[in-house]
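Reviewers of the previous submission asked for a worked example of the structure-prediction workflow described in the proposal, so we include one complete record here. The input consisted solely of the amino acid sequence. No template or homolog information was supplied to the procedure at any stage.
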Amino acid sequence: MHTESHTLERRNRELAVLNEIASALNEEIDLRAALETALRKVAELMELRTGWIWLHRDEGNGEEPIPYLAAAQNLPPALRDDPRQMEGDCYCLRTFRAGDLSGAANVNVVSCSRLSALVDGTRGLRYHTSVPLYASHGHKLGVLNVADTDWRELSAADLRLLYTIGDLLSITIERARLFRRSAQIGAMEERGRLAREIHDTLGQSLAAITLHMETADALLEVGAGREAIWASVRKALELSRSSLQEARRSVLDLRAAALEGRSLAEAVRELLEAFQKRNQIEVSYREAGASHPLPVRLAVAAYRVAQEGLTNVEKHAAAEHVWLELTVTPGSLRLLIEDDGRGFDPDAVAKDQYGQSQFGQGQIGQGHYGLIGINERVRLLAGRLDLMSSPDAGTRLEVTLPLEDQLPGPAYGEKRT
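From that input alone, the workflow returned the following C-alpha cells.
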C-alpha cells in the first residue's frame, strides 16, 4: 500500500512538473525566452541548479550543423564570465551527433569536457545529465544539459521526466523555427514589394526631373525668358526633394541588404578584410557565440555600428592597430572597437540633435556625426553605448544590445576618460 501511494505521489508530481513547463512554453513566443523559462522551471521543480541548452543552427543547406549556446541557467563563473569557453565542440555534442545519447546509461552522468580542464570558478561541477533534442522527423536539434553542485545520479523516473521535457522543448523549437521561416518569407515578399514601389515611384520621379531639366536646358539655348527657365528648374527641385524623402524611406525599409545571405560574423569579417586592404593598419579580431542566430534588425544595427566605427578609425584616428571583438550570449550582443590612434575629447561630440548630452557636456564636433548615428541606433534597440577616449590615448567604443525584444528606451551613454 505504501509503495502504491509513493508511486501515485511521484506520478502526480511528474504531471505537475510537465503541466507547469508546458504552460510556460505555450505562453512564450520568443524562442530564447521559452528556453530560459524551461531551464528555470526544471531548476525549480527538480532541484537542479545549473542547466544550459545547445542548439544547432538551422542552416537548411546540408552542411555540418554548427552548435551554439541558446540558453543558460546559473552557469559556473568559469563558463559564464568567459564566453569562449562555451564555443566549439565538446564531448556531449560529439556524442549527440554520433547518435549515442540514448538510454539512461549514456545520459545520466556525462563528464563535462569543458569543465575538466578548469580549476577555478567551476563551483565543483564536473558532470551533467545530457538529454538529446530531436525534431518530429528525427532531425537533430540540440542537447539539454542539467547539473547541480551537489551532484547525484538521477533516478529512472527523473530521467524519463527529463526526456519528456526534452520532447516539449523540441516541439517549442520546431514551432519557433517555423514561425521564423514564415516571417523571413514575409520579409522577402515585402522587400520585393518595396523594390517594385521604388521602380514605380523613384523611377518615374527621376524621369520627370530629367524631363524638366532638359526643358530648362532647351529654353536656355533658345534664349527664352528667365522666368520660363526658372519655372522648369523649380519643378525639378520640387520633384527632387520629394524623391529624396521617398529614397530615405525606402532605404530604411531595405536596410537589411548589407547582410543578405551572410551572418553578422561573416559580414564583419569581410568588413575587416576590406578595411585592412585599404589601410596600413594592423587588425585584431576575436569572436564568441558567432553561431547564435540574431534578429535581422539587431544584426543589421550591429553591422552598421562596426562599419561606422571602422570608418571613424580610418578617417580620424591615424591609428596603427585596431581591435574588434564580437560576443554573442543568450542574452545580449556585445561589439567592441578599440584603436591606438590620436583619440579625442568626448565632451566635444556630446550633444545629440535635440541638444541633450549623451556622453557629457559639450557641442557636436565637426565630422563626428557618425557617433551620433551610432548612439541613435543603439537607443532604438534599448542598448548601451560606452565611449572612452582622450587626446593621444586612442578610442574605445563598446556597444551592448539586448537580444530580447524591448520597447525603445532612453539612450544609455557613458563617457569615461
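The chain is about 50% helix and 20% strand. We consider this example representative of the routine output the project will generate in years two and three.
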